[in-house]
Design brief:
The complex is a heterotrimer of chains A (234), B (334) and C (435).
Chain A lengths: L3 E9 L4 E10 L4 E5 L6 H8 L4 E9 L2 E2 L5 H6 L2 E4 L11 H8 L7 H11 L1 H5 L10 H13 L5 E5 L7 H16 L3 E5 L3 H6 L3 E6 L2 E7 H6 L1 H7 L3
Parallel strand pairs in A: 3-8, 3-9, 6-7, 7-8
Antiparallel strand pairs in A: 1-2, 1-4, 4-5, 9-10
Helix pairs in contact in A: 3-6
Chain B lengths: L1 H35 L6 H18 L11 H30 L4 H23 L14 E4 L10 E4 H23 L1 H11 L1 H6 L4 H26 L6 H15 L5 H19 L3 H4 L26 H13 L11
Antiparallel strand pairs in B: 1-2
Helix pairs in contact in B: 1-5, 1-8, 1-9, 1-10, 2-3, 2-4, 2-8, 2-9, 3-4, 3-8, 5-6, 5-8, 6-8, 9-10, 9-12
Chain C lengths: L7 H5 L6 H21 L1 H28 L6 H16 L4 H4 L3 H23 L8 H34 L9 H23 L4 H21 L1 H4 L15 H4 L1 H28 L1 H11 L1 H4 L5 H28 L9 H15 L4 H37 L7 H7 L1 H15 L14
Classes of the chains: A alpha/beta (234), B mainly alpha (334), C mainly alpha (435).
Bound molecules: adenosine-5'-diphosphate (ADP) and magnesium ion (MG).
Protein name (chain C): Branched-chain amino acid ABC transporter permease
GO molecular function (chain C): branched-chain amino acid transmembrane transporter activity
Keywords (chain C): Cell membrane, Membrane, Transmembrane, Transmembrane helix
Chain lengths: 234, 334, 435
């Protein structure tokens, strides 16, 4: 049974549908990457999975169980974590408090998880008493991912985790994502840095205008000349 | 020196009294602002309601305080806090939550809260009448006069018993709130929701719980402030009339959504009021002889008469909105 | 952003028969006739005039709330300003004041005020002459404080003299409508100031600031005995039409009613014209589609300010007309919250932004409000009788006044219910999508 499955998902923000029939499957332990032009509906798809907008047709299954239109806090309980593209930290709270909020539903596992997250992101340990809003972009991204990891998710949704980061930080973040995946967390992420992301992807989904354009393994999408021409900048 | 004592009584003591009350009031307003993001106009009437609960309980059990060695009204305060908290949660469920669920603009909630304020006023007037009533039903209001051991000082510093309770309870409330917001899991979740509501939700924080917790705190604080004000003077059904503007001015001066700022703002507004109505002639009079002949000081050197006290918070409000709408502290812009 | 034009469906939509409007106004007519039958012509005509005055206020508020989503919580402040002007311009000249040296003294103090303002403004520009900015600020503040003290002391002296020797400065003895117009202008001026400060900020701030200005206007009018006789009140105020002494109550009130009806008709016509002119289209575009019209840039705040000032002007005029009709200027009679809310209920119930609906709401709500007074007393009497007779309860003596005070509960309840169940009112303004 796949970890996460989307079947013919339609949905949007009220009036018009942004998603017009999207299909995705992600097995446990896989890294899935969603790429596509701006406005294709990539972020919208993640939000749909995480219960932040109305799915009015189709279904989304987590380990075979329908989850579309469940509220986010229920999904967190079911083992899903989400790192939005923007505003993904609590700026006036310290790094440690940010992380604690991630484990809000599991107050007993705060201590061990804090330790794990600090191990995964050592810079956060040094800055744990600083306000998150004062950190650099890359460190904020670490706080955001750390926050989501605190709830011990089995699948993590990441929206453009490397947006606006320097190449150095970008590689750092991709490395961390692979490590997280290695301990058994399924990853579904949206990426603008498509080549680098597809390189570490087990599955790739190319979206355009709210529909699947190509779906394949990361490696074959990278090798596909059509994809390269239209979506990877030649 | 005696003039200086006069200054202490009329500015320092009086300013601390109104400052404390405005501070507690403004914290309530600012908490609602930071969690629900609208200006809660019914807050001042919640304060009145809290005081009214104390009045009702004290009238019903006038001797209850004797056993504790405290005025009955103070003993009844925790009960009144609980009742006001209940009222606040109930009002939210009945009136604000449905509006929120409709996804209305904040200003519609503001109007709703004004409707609630009118309802509260109606209820309070129906049951309490329209006149003033003393919260010291069976007790005697102690008044402490301290003559400072300085040469030539005859005028005492005057502090009343309710003012002492006010200072102590203000301190306790502020410390308790600080500990709650920074140490407890729910308090941190409240700050998280004020920082970034979507992310708080995405972290699994149940926003309904946080909203309810906020109302409990807001209601309790309102009851404290309203009761202590009524203890100091008398209970009046139209207390809110004198509170609404100073409280909002204090919250905005401190930066909305910023509890510590609200406390500072409360004292800024409180002291500004007392300084503005203080007759400065009193302080200058001893030096009258050293003034040149052509300078004849008018007998009234107050900036505004007490009847225009309400101008002070308004002036502060307008000034802060013009020069620094985010408040004196670098408040977050909500 | 292209300038919004009338959307196709606005043009193409067939003119439907205004069934809803006709039915609602028919019901209203029946209610009015019922009041006439029950309470007599003189009382009912008075009620209609007052409702008409409220309709002017409601039109002012419907512009602000319905056209632009601005919430003015201080309607009564602007009304009181209008009322004051109506009083000041229309009542007879007070010779006990004008025949003394006091007018000159007052004029001198006003000159002081002008001089002080100029001096402070000048001081605030000192940095242009090379004075360091910090020093300039300190100097300006000190100068402002000292000059304020000088001016306010002089003013206190003169006004005290006026109060003790002449009572108050009296009026100008001009026709009431001069006062109405000036009242509108004055209210508009205050509205400009408030709007200028608040309209760029969160919408809540406007509510707080308007509430504050209303309280201040009331405090000023109530405590400036030299200007308004304060709590002693001023009456009678001359009407621009023949009064009851000449024509009897019903006829004179009917005449006054026709004046107010004329005013409403003129306002209604002008608003209708403006609403369908480019200006109105722009306003609606801002309201319906704020985000994309933000591309129009600074103009939005300009338009918002115009709307707000226009609404305040109408409130000032309405306040003048109302106060003249009551023939009594009592600063304490303007209850900031309660009456503001009455107007707000009128607007929301009628249909925010819909002028016809607003007028309907004004008359309907005012009838309900007026009729709720005998009803509240009746209910209270019923409860008291029942309580005393059946349960042997002991009621406090002032139950009647409490019952009347408690009517604010009804407005409060009404407002929250309407907001929840019919936020668009009984005659909803159709929102079209532009561009
Ligand atoms: N909160 C929103 N409300 C309405 N429309 C939105 C919202 N967020 C995004 N959209 C629209 O949805 C479409 C897809 O957006 P998004 O999913 O963010 O694209 P991307 O693939 O670049 O992440 C865009 O046309 C965008 O304008
Ligand atoms: Mg995106």
């Amino acid at each position: 049974m796949p970890l996460l499955e989307a079947r013919d998902v339609h949905g949007g923000y009220g009036g018009m549908n942004i998603l017009n029939g999207i299909n995705m499957t992600l097995e446990a332990d896989e890294v899935g990457v969603i790429v596509g032009p701006n406005g294709a509906g990539k972020s919208t798809m993640l939000k749909a999975i995480f219960g932040l907008l109305l799915v009015n047709q189709g279904e989304i299954l987590l380990r075979g169980e329908p989850i579309h239109n469940l509220p986010p806090n229920k999904l967190v309980q079911k083992g899903m974590g989400f790192v939005p593209q923007e505003n993904n930290i609590f700026p006036s709270m310290t790094v440690k408090e940010n992380l604690e909020m991630g484990a809000f539903l599991k107050p007993n596992s705060v201590k061990p998880m804090l330790k794990q997250v600090y191990e995964a992101f050592p810079p956060l340990y040094d800055k744990r008493h600083q306000r998150a809003g004062e950190l650099s972009g890359g460190q904020r991204q670490m706080v955001a991912m750390g926050r989501a990891l605190m709830a011990e998710p089995s699948v993590l949704l990441l929206d453009e985790p490397t947006a606006g980061l320097s190449p150095l930080y970008m590689n750092e973040i991709f490395a961390r994502i692979r490590e997280i995946n290695a301990i058994g967390v399924g990853i579904l992420m949206v990426e603008q840095n498509a080549k680098q992301a597809l390189a570490i992807a087990d599955k790739g989904f190319v979206l355009a205008a709210g529909q699947n354009r190509f779906t394949d393994t990361g490696a074959s999408l990278l090798a596909n000349p059509d994809v390269a021409k239209s979506f990877l900048g030649g | 020196m005696n003039e200086f004592m006069f200054f202490i009584n009329n500015v320092l003591v009086a300013g601390s009294v109104s400052g404390s009350i405005y501070a507690i009031g403004a914290v309530g307003v600012t908490l609602v602002f930071s969690i629900m993001r609208f200006a809660h106009f019914a807050h001042a009437d919640m304060m009145t309601f809290g005081a009214f609960m104390v009045l009702a309980l004290t009238t019903a059990f006038p001797a209850a305080g004797a056993g504790f060695g405290m005025p009955t009204a103070v003993v009844m305060l925790p009960v009144a806090m609980a009742l006001t908290a209940l009222l606040a949660v109930g009002i939210d469920k009945a009136f604000y939550k449905p509006l929120r669920a409709h996804g209305v603009k904040p200003i519609v909630l503001v109007i709703g809260s004004l409707g609630v304020t009118l309802m509260l006023q109606g209820v309070i007037r129906l049951f309490a009448g329209t006149g003033g009533q003393n919260l010291y039903v069976d007790d005697r209001k102690e008044i402490f006069r301290m003559v400072l051991p300085l040469e030539g000082v005859r005028v005492p510093v005057v502090i009343t018993e309710p003012q002492l309770y006010l200072f102590v309870l203000t301190l306790v409330s502020v410390v308790a709130l600080h500990l709650f917001l920074n140490r407890s899991r729910l308090g941190k979740a409240m700050r998280a929701m004020s920082d970034n509501p979507e992310l708080a939700q995405a972290s699994g924080i149940n926003t309904n719980t946080i909203v309810a917790v906020t109302w409990v705190i807001v209601g309790s604080l309102a009851a404290i402030a309203g009761t202590l004000l009524s203890l100091d003077v008398t209970f009046k059904p139209d207390l809110s009339f004198f509170l609404l503007l100073p409280i909002f001015a204090a919250a905005i001066v401190g930066g909305v959504g910023h509890p510590y700022g609200a406390i500072a703002g409360g004292f800024v507004v409180g002291f500004a009021e007392t300084l503005a109505v203080f007759n400065w002639n009193v302080l200058l009079r001893p030096y009258r002889d050293s003034f040149p002949d052509w300078l004849e000081l008018p007998s009234n050197l107050a900036f505004v008469g007490t009847e225009y006290k309400i101008v002070v918070p308004f002036f502060i409000l307008v000034a802060i909105l013009i020069w620094r709408p985010t408040g004196i502290f670098k408040g977050k812009v909500i | 952003m292209n300038t919004p034009t009338a959307s196709p469906n606005e043009i193409a939509a067939p003119r439907r028969f205004p069934l809803r409007e006709v039915v609602l106004f028919a019901i209203l007519l029946v209610a009015v006739l019922g009041v006439y039958a029950l309470m007599g012509a003189a009382y009912s005509t008075r009620m209609l005039v007052e409702a008409a005055c409220y309709a002017i206020l409601a039109l002012g508020l419907t512009i602000q709330w319905g056209y632009a989503g601005q919430f003015n919580a201080g309607v009564m402040g602007f009304v009181a300003l209008g009322g004051f002007c109506a009083m000041f311009f229309s009542i007879p000249v007070n010779d006990a004041f004008w025949n003394t040296e006091l007018p000159g003294e007052l004029g001198r103090v006003l000159l002081y005020v002008v001089g002080a303002v100029l001096a402070v403004v000048g001081a605030s520009k000192l940095d242009r002459l090379g004075v360091p900015k910090k020093l300039r600020s300190v100097l300006t503040v000190i100068l402002a404080v000292v000059l304020y003290m000088v001016v306010i002391s002089a003013l206190r002296g003169v006004t005290g003299e006026i109060e003790s020797r002449a009572g108050f400065i009296g009026g100008l003895g001009l026709p009431a409508w001069v006062g109405w117009i000036v009242g509108g202008a004055l209210a508009g001026g205050v509205g400009y100031f408030i709007g200028h400060v608040c309209l760029g900020l969160r919408s809540d701030y406007l509510a707080i600031a308007t509430l504050g200005i209303a309280e201040i206007i009331k405090a000023f009018l109530k405590n400036s005995d030299w200007l308004t006789r304060g709590t002693a009140t001023v009456s009678p105020l001359p009407w621009p039409t023949p009064g009851p002494a000449e024509l009897g109550f019903t006829l004179s009130r009917a005449l006054y009613l026709s004046v107010t009806a004329l005013i409403i008709a003129v306002i209604f016509f002008l608003l209708h014209r403006a609403y369908h002119a480019p200006w109105g289209r722009m306003i609606r575009a801002i309201r319906d589609n704020e985000i994309s019209s933000a591309a129009m840039g600074k103009d939005i705040n300009r338009r918002r300010l115009e709307i707000f000032v226009l609404g305040c002007i109408l409130m000032g005029i309405g306040g003048g007309v109302m106060t003249t009709f009551n023939s009594l200027f009592d600063p304490q009679g303007y209850l900031p919250l309660n009456h503001t809310f009455l107007v707000l209920v009128m607007v929301i119930l009628g249909g925010p932004g819909n002028n016809l609906g607003t007028i309907f709401g004004a008359v309907a709500v005012y009838i309900i409000w007026i009729m709720s007074e005998p009803l509240a007393l009746f209910l209270m009497q019923l409860v008291v009788n029942l309580g005393e007779g059946v349960f042997g309860w002991d009621f406090p003596a002032n139950m009647e006044s409490r019952a009347l005070q408690a009517r604010v509960l009804v407005i409060g309840l009404l407002i929250t219910l309407v907001l929840r169940f019919a936020p668009k009112g009984l005659l909803p303004e159709k929102i079209k999508h532009h561009g």
